[in-house]
TrEMBL record:
Keywords, comma-separated and alphabetical: Aminotransferase, Pyridoxal phosphate, Transferase
Cofactor(s) required, per the database record: pyridoxal 5'-phosphate
Family: Belongs to the trans-sulfuration enzymes family.
Region listing for Disordered, in residue ranges: 380-404
Pfam families referenced in this protein's UniProt entry, alphabetically: Cys_Met_Meta_PP
Source organism superkingdom: Bacteria
Protein name: Aminotransferase class I/II-fold pyridoxal phosphate-dependent enzyme
One GO MF term attached to the UniProt entry: transaminase activity
Length: 404
C-alpha cells in the first residue's frame, strides 16, 4: 500500500495545490467545473473496452469521462486533494457522509462479511444505520477494550469516531488498529479533519468524512468521502456506479475550494473553541465540559439547568444541527443529532440529556462568549423559576436581562 505519493510538502501547501497541479499547463487558475452528465465519443468499440475494464476492476477511468455517474473530473480533483491531505493512496467521494458509509458497508457485505463491530458514540444516523440493520449488517457494540474479542470470521469492519460525535470522546487509534488484526478499521475523521489527525498513519485502512462539515466549511454543500487504499477504492467506485450516490460536480468544486482554507479555518476556530472551553469549565452554570486533548473546534458541555433554554437564548450563535461551518452553531444532541438513537443507547454512549454540542466558527471569541453567557443566564432564571414555582402552562418566563 506504499504507493501513497511521497509528501514532502506541508499540509498547508497541499491544501491549496493538491488536485490542481495541472492547471497552469492548461492555462487555468481556478479549477474548471464540469457539469456534463454525458460525453461524446464516436468510438464505441473503445468505450465498450473501457466499460468492461471498469466493471472488472473498478479502476478510475483514464481518458475522457463517459457518464457522470461513472466519473467526473471536478470531483476527481477533490478526491485527489483529500487523499493527499489524509495521506492515503486515493479517495472516493459520495453525495453525503451517509452515502459514503452506506457504500462502505455494502462493499463489505458484498464480500460476505456482514458483521460490524462498533464503538459508541457514533454520529446519530451512523448509529441508526447499524442498529436498524437496514443494509443487512449485524452490529456488535463494544467498548474499545472489547474489540478483539468481538471480532468473528464474518466481521468485515470495525467502526469508530474520534473525537466522537457528540461527546468528543477520544480513542487511541493506534491501539485500536492493533486490536482489529486483519479486519479493516474505519475511522470517522469528520471532527478532527486531517489538519489535527490522520488516522491512516495510525493504522486505519478506511477514513470517512462527512465533507458537509469542515471540508466544505461554509454550510452550503453536502458531501461525503472515503480516503483509503486503491484496492478498497475500486470496490467503492463499483458500488457508487451501481447505486448512484455520487457527489455533484458543483459540490466537488466547492469542496476542493473548501480544502484550500481548511488548515487556516480549523486552526483559528480551534483557538477560539479552546478559549470558550476554558471559560465554560470555570463557569458554575456548567457542570461538565468535553474538549478533546487533540484540540479542535467542537466543544460539548453539560449544563446545570435546562439545556433547551440555552438553545432558546442564543442570538449570535445559530441554534442548528450540523457543524464545521465558519459561523458558530449549537444544538441539543438528545433532541436533534442523536434523536434517532434509542434513549438507552444514548446513555450507553455517554450522551446526557443536559449535553449541548457547539461547533465554534470564526467569530470573535468575546462576542461568542457574550452570547453564551447571556443564554446561560436565561437558562438559570428559567431553572430557578422551575424549581421554586410551578410554571403555569409549562411556559418559560422571560430571561433575565443580559449581563456582561
Ligand atoms: C454529519 C456526520 C455524518 C453524516 O454526514 P452527512 O454528510 O450528513 O451525510 C457522519 N459522521 C459524522 C461524525 C457526522 O458529523
Amino acid at each position: 500500500m506504499e504507493t501513497t505519493p511521497a509528501t514532502t510538502r506541508s499540509l498547508a501547501t497541499e491544501a491549496v495545490h493538491a488536485g490542481r497541479e495541472d492547471l497552469a499547463a492548461l492555462g487555468l487558475h481556478a479549477a474548471p467545473l464540469d457539469l456534463s452528465t454525458t460525453y461524446p465519443s464516436h468510438d464505441s468499440r473503445a468505450e465498450a473496452a473501457r466499460l468492461d475494464e471498469f466493471a472488472a476492476t473498478g479502476a478510475q477511468l483514464t481518458g475522457p469521462p463517459v457518464y457522470a455517474r461513472l466519473d467526473n473530473p471536478t470531483v476527481a480533483r477533490f478526491e485527489q486533494a483529500l487523499a493527499r491531505l489524509e495521506g492515503t493512496e486515493t479517495a472516493v467521494a459520495f453525495a453525503s457522509g451517509m452515502a459514503a458509509l452506506t457504500a462502505t458497508l455494502l462493499a463489505r457485505t458484498a464480500a460476505g462479511l456482514r458483521h460490524v463491530v462498533a464503538v459508541r458514540p457514533l454520529y446519530g444516523c451512523s448509529d441508526h444505520l447499524l442498529s436498524s440493520g437496514l443494509l443487512g449488517t449485524e452490529v456488535t457494540w463494544v467498548d474499545p477494550a472489547g474489540i478483539a474479542e468481538a471480532i468473528r470470521p464474518e466481521t468485515g469492519l470495525v467502526i469508530v469516531e474520534s473525537p466522537a460525535n457528540p461527546t468528543l470522546a477520544e480513542l487511541d487509534l493506534r491501539a485500536l488498529a492493533h486490536s482489529c488484526g486483519t479486519v479493516p478499521l474505519m475511522v470517522d475523521n469528520t471532527f478532527a479533519t486531517p489538519v489535527l489527525q490522520r488516522p491512516h498513519e495510525s493504522g486505519a485502512r478506511i477514513v470517512l468524512h462527512s465533507a458537509t462539515k469542515y471540508l466544505g466549511g461554509h454550510g452550503d454543500v453536502l458531501g461525503g468521502v472515503i480516503a483509503c487504499d486503491e484496492e478498497f477504492a475500486r470496490q467503492l467506485r463499483q458500488i457508487r456506479f451501481a447505486t448512484g450516490g455520487v457527489l455533484h460536480p458543483l459540490a466537488g468544486y466547492l469542496l476542493l475550494r473548501g480544502l484550500s482554507t481548511l488548515p487556516v479555518r480549523v486552526r483559528a476556530q480551534s483557538a477560539t473553541a479552546a478559549v470558550l472551553a476554558r471559560r465554560l469549565a470555570d463557569d458554575p452554570r456548567v457542570t461538565r465540559v468535553h474538549y478533546p486533548k487533540l484540540g479542535g473546534a467542537m466543544v460539548a458541555f453539560e449544563v446545570a439547568g435546562d439545556p433547551h433554554e440555552v438553545i432558546a437564548g442564543v442570538r449570535l450563535i445559530t441554534p442548528a444541527v450540523s457543524l464545521g461551518s465558519v459561523d458558530t452553531l449549537i444544538q441539543h444532541p438528545g433532541s436533534i443529532s442523536h434523536r434517532i438513537v434509542a434513549e438507552d443507547d444514548r446513555r450507553t454512549g455517554g450522551i446526557s440529556d443536559r449535553l449541548l454540542r457547539m461547533s465554534v466558527g470564526l467569530e470573535d471569541a468575546e462576542d461568542l462568549w457574550y452570547d453564551l453567557d447571556t443564554a446561560l443566564s436565561a437558562r438559570r432564571s428559567a431553572t430557578r423559576d422551575l424549581e421554586e414555582t410551578p410554571r403555569p402552562g409549562g411556559r418559560s418566563p422571560a430571561p433575565e436581562p443580559a449581563r456582561r
